[in-house]
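Sample 3 of the quickstart, ligand GMT:
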Amino acid sequence: MKRLNIGVICYPTVGGSGVVATELGKKMAARGHSVHFITSERPFRLTQLSDNVQFHRVEIEGYSVFQYPPYDIALANRIAQVIQSEALDVLHVHYAVPHAIAATLGRHMADSSIPIVTTLHGTDVTILGEQVSLKDTVRYGIEQSDRTTAVSEALRRDTYRLIAPDAPIDVIYNFIDHEAYYVDDEERDSVRREFGFDEKELVFIHVSNFREVKRTDYVLNSFAHILKEKKAHLLLVGDGPEMDEREKQVRHLGIEPYVHFTGKRTDVRSLLNASDVMLHLSDKEAFGLVILEAFACGVPVIGTNVGGIPEVIEHDRNGRIVPLDDEQAVVRAALSLVESPERYASFQREAIRTAQTTFHEDRMVDAYERVYEDVLLR
Ligand code: GMT
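Result:
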């Protein structure tokens, strides 16, 4: 395929959509394309720039008249500049709002017909698509794009149900970097030593941004029920708006010695390696990238029957699916998963296989490359 100049627009801070955008950009660069990230900060996973991986900062200048800094307009302005200065062939925007709109405006400002590919990631549809103030804008962004992709079948269905765009949507699943996530027994031992866990003790893990949709209240209530049956520990990794509430809940449940708040950590792989089972009990989740990260480290996942989660977790193979708000179902799923070492080992093997085959990065990068090729042919 011809070498392309690809403009990538995403949220640069911690979050699955920015991670996917950055990893995809890096993989495209490894295939010989030139990738230009147009973002307000350098994406946190973009640790190295090179001749074919560049970062174009969006400068947002304030002015006393503005009640809010005009990020969307500044982004459109920067997109228009980079389309011209770098002779971009295609724009790939991650997260519909405001990125698809800013790309449409930037293209118009540059007097260009550059194709726009928009990838929907989740709450850009399932939350913003329900807001009267934004719903029509999300639809407009999708309809102005030359191609739209969604990270799961569930998100594709939700997009038609909630927003009803007059446009086709392709599903391209997420993937993870296998050089960053893998099984490591030494890491398991060292993290277990750090937290004072015995080799045989059962360790659960939850990793998220502690927003309401992640239902960390349900994670804690379920874990408290597990503790009534079996001694265990819970690593809570990440930080976010619900953290204070969760600390109060832990005190209220009287389970302080068994719950370990780690805050944001850069060594998530080590924490996953030290864990036996992940709990991912969201009430909205288009995909759940951390589930794949857990799988790659050989950790089976208990997840809710919500959004794209059942597309990633194969019930009774690499994890278990439970109904939302059924704490006893989580207890049963967790304890029966670990009671037989043979069964647990089979779940671990399946988890690793899922991350390495069904969701292998090469499949997804090929699919995105085909999308670029298609929109350029038109
Ligand atoms: O939509 C969000 O909540 C933010 C977004 C993000 O930037 O992390 O998360 C979504 O995109 C991820 C990457 O595609 C998916 O793995 C998450 O499931 C999805 N979050 C939700 O749907 C809640």
